[in-house]
Design a protein that fits this description.
mainly alpha; Cytochrome Bc1 Complex, Chain D, domain 2; two-stranded antiparallel ribbon; 9 helices; 2 strands; 53% helix; 9% strand; Cyt_c-like_dom_sf; heme; signal
Length: 152
């Protein structure tokens, strides 16, 4: 009986976030799909598509930093993506653990065909977490990145 109780206590002491973080698909579905849709296609004029874009944006160090910064800080203001205008607000996801944010971003970077990409690390997210940026300032960051490396 004592052994079972000890085993149960050990299982309860393992952080739930670590078990969940390995599944970027589930994390995306529960945190992002209500706006960006379950397949990442978005809604033109309302919520930008992520499918086929995040991996391309993250192909440069500056792009990878930008994607992580958007996930952590959100974005607010007018942007144009693939000819569609968006003037909305994406909330920050700082409440998620670093491994969860990395898992979501790797899932999205692998869309549409998967498997999840291995672009974003926990260290990338942890480093960006220390550089808080206002959601409205992310629009300027996007414009600067687009001038440096045209965004898809």
């Amino acid at each position: 009986m004592k052994k079972r109780l000890l085993a149960a206590m050990l299982c309860l002491s393992i952080p739930a976030g670590s078990a969940i973080a390995a599944d970027g698909t589930a994390l995306f579905q529960s945190n992002c799909s209500m706006c960006h849709q379950p397949n990442g296609q978005g809604v033109p004029g309302q919520f930008p598509a992520l499918v086929g874009r995040v991996g391309k944006i993250a192909s440069t160090p500056e792009g990878r930093q930008y994607v992580v910064a958007v996930a952590l800080n959100g974005i607010m203001g007018a942007i144009t993506i693939q000819g569609n205008s968006y003037a909305g607000f994406m909330p920050p996801f700082k409440m998620l653990a670093d491994d969860q944010v990395a898992a979501i971003l790797n899932h999205v970077a692998g869309l549409p065909d998967g498997p999840d990409a291995t672009i974003f690390t926990v260290q990338d997210v942890a480093a960006a977490r220390g550089k808080s940026i206002a959601p409205s300032a992310m629009v300027e960051k996007r414009q600067a990145l687009d001038a440096l490396h045209p965004l898809p």
